[in-house]
From TrEMBL:
Organism: Bordetella genomosp. 1
Keywords of this entry: DNA-binding, Transcription, Transcription regulation
Every HTH lysR-type domain range: 1-58
InterPro entries per the UniProt record, alphabetical: LysR_HTH_N, LysR_subst-bd, WH-like_DNA-bd_sf, WH_DNA-bd_sf
This protein's name: LysR family transcriptional regulator
Highest rank taxon of the organism: Bacteria
Keyword DNA-binding: yes
Pfam families, per database record: HTH_1 (PF00126), LysR_substrate (PF03466)
């Protein structure tokens, strides 16, 4: 029995399928199956029931799973104690929301590559729910998205926040000199859909000011939202840095009578059972570099 065999067994048991587990370990599915087969041979019994369309754990596999987790956790702890300047190799897959991908993600990738030149970085950008699904299924090593996760299998660490400002194009305001929150009832609110983390702070703001928009126009892209607001299709809010640039250009105006939204908290998320030292290093890098004022091609 080797650590590589236990590692192959553990990730095959906890990822969505063997292909995801093999991808996570940067090996082929056949190599993963070989390691599991060698482990089963050493134990003299099967760990997976392969008669079904998707492999499921046998009773022995269920019994071994927590022990494999503890052995791998112990090995990770030893690596942390053995050296403070570890250089990682293989593949690192992480997920982020669109706002992160458009602002400071390139800086994060650059920092990872400089610290670990043999590590292949593979980012994925999507809405928070999709990113969390990928993390929980084992397709991603870590995630950086808005808000703490409500999933029991996912641990969240706060690393920073994003701030937003209410804006509109002059043409959307018409002859109005000033716009107050109550007037949203007669206007269109342009924003992201319900599965976006930013909706949390929007719902809090609407409830606090006892208002509801007359109409909502939703889109799952920050770039599209910014474009629709610039076109005068409704009012909305944008990341503060974007809003300031567009207002300086005269394309938008700040809605000065709209109280500010609460900042949106961002977290570094990882599976609770994944104790690799690499993830601690990635979290520290992310906490150091997070910056939603970073340049964006959109503005």
């Amino acid at each position: 029995m080797t650590l590589k065999q236990l590692e192959a067994f553990y990730w095959a048991a906890t990822c969505r399928n063997f292909a995801v587990a093999a991808n996570r370990l940067s090996i082929s599915v056949s190599s993963l199956s070989k390691r599991i087969g060698e482990l089963e041979a050493s134990l003299g019994a099967a760990l997976f029931n392969r008669s079904a369309r998707s492999a499921s754990l046998t009773p022995l596999g269920e019994h071994l799973l927590p022990h494999a987790r503890e052995l791998l956790r112990g090995a990770d702890h030893f690596l942390q104690q053995a050296g403070t300047q570890l250089s990682y190799a293989g593949r690192c897959r992480f997920g982020v929301g669109e706002l992160t991908s458009l602002t400071w993600m390139p800086r994060l990738i650059e920092a990872i590559q400089q610290a670990h030149p043999n590590l292949l970085v593979e980012p994925f950008a999507g809405v928070g729910q999709l990113v969390e699904d990928g993390l929980e299924n084992g397709e991603l090593d870590f995630a950086i998205i808005a808000g703490p996760s409500s999933r029991p299998a996912v641990a969240s660490s706060r690393i920073g926040q994003a701030e937003f400002g209410w804006v509109a194009a002059p043409r959307a305001l018409g002859r109005r000199q000033r716009v107050r929150p109550a007037q949203l009832a007669d206007m269109t609110l342009v924003t992201l859909p319900q599965n976006s983390g930013v909706i949390r702070i929007l719902d809090d703001w609407l409830a606090a000011h006892h208002v509801a928009p007359g109409r909502a126009m939703n889109c799952n892209s920050w770039g599209a939202v910014a474009g629709m607001i610039r076109q005068g299709l409704g009012v909305g809010f944008l990341p503060t840095a974007w809003a300031e640039v567009l207002c300086r250009r005269g394309e938008l105006v700040m809605l000065a009578d709209f109280p500010p939204l609460n900042p949106l908290q961002y977290t570094f998320q990882r599976r609770r059972d994944d104790t690799r030292p690499m993830l601690d290093d990635m979290r520290k890098l992310a906490a150091k570099l997070i910056d939603f004022h970073a340049p964006s091609c959109l503005v």
